[in-house]
Amino acid sequence: MVRHGERCDNSELASEKARIELAWDPPLTQIGEEQARLTGRELYNKIKQANLQYLVLESSPFLRCLQTAAIIAREIGIQSVHVNYLIGEWMKPAFYPDGDPRGKLFVETLPREEIERKWLHGMRVNNYQTNIDQTQFPEEYLDVKKRARTHVKQLQKFYQTS
């Protein structure tokens, strides 16, 4: 599990804030992109040391997460990123004063090819719009814990049978 890099709405720089097209789905800053690159390089070294052969990279549907995952994927040699709503943000109303962000994210409103070209530097996105029905808004803290637990169990089941 990796958290996303620095996001534009947390930057003090006007040039970074100007990159925000959707308030509820801000992109990474240049610093955030570099954080993702450094994380990817470190993960590459760990993967190489462990001699891992089969890698899958999943990402929350939020743009900053997809960008982080795409940069890491490139660094470790993976060709695509899988979108998974079960590992998305806490759907807490205080975080989204304009209401439910689901249905308004870039991953849901732009063609996949445009996101891949404009924001992910050509990295492919697979399983586009998966698991959205397994999330809810608003969401209490216990709901988030349950969602995360469900995802971990699904991963365990999937990889035990693979």
The CATH topology is: Rossmann fold
CATH-assigned homologous superfamily? Phosphoglycerate mutase-like
Q: Outline, from the CA principal axes? A: globular
| Rg from alpha-carbon coordinates | 16 Å
Architecture in CATH? 3-Layer(aba) Sandwich
User: What is the tally of beta strands?
Assistant: 3
Number of domains: 1
**Strand fraction:** 5-15%
How would you sum up the major sheet?
Answer: 3 strands, parallel
Give helix % range.
40-55%
Q: Distance N terminus to C terminus?
A: 20 Å
DSSP summary: helix tally? 6
Which consecutive residue ranges, at least 5 long each, have pLDDT under 50? none
CATH class: Alpha Beta
Secondary structural class: mainly alpha
Order of helices and strands: HHEHEHHEH
Across the major sheet, the strand order is: 1-2-3
Mean pLDDT: 91
Task: Explain what this protein looks like in three dimensions.
The chain has 162 residues and is mostly helical. It has one domain (8-161): Phosphoglycerate mutase-like (Rossmann fold), CATH 3.40.50. It is 44% helix and 6% strand. It is built from six helices and three strands, in the order ααβαβααβα. The chain has helices spanning 14-17, 30-50, 63-76, 106-109, 112-118, 141-161; strands at 58-59, 80-83, 124-126. It has a three-stranded parallel beta sheet with strand order 1-2-3, with helices on one face. β1 (58-59), α3 and β2 (80-83) form a beta-alpha-beta unit. α2 (30-50) crosses α3 (63-76). The protein is globular and about 45 Å long. It starts with 13 loop residues before the first helix and ends with a helix. The model has no long low-confidence stretch (mean pLDDT 91).
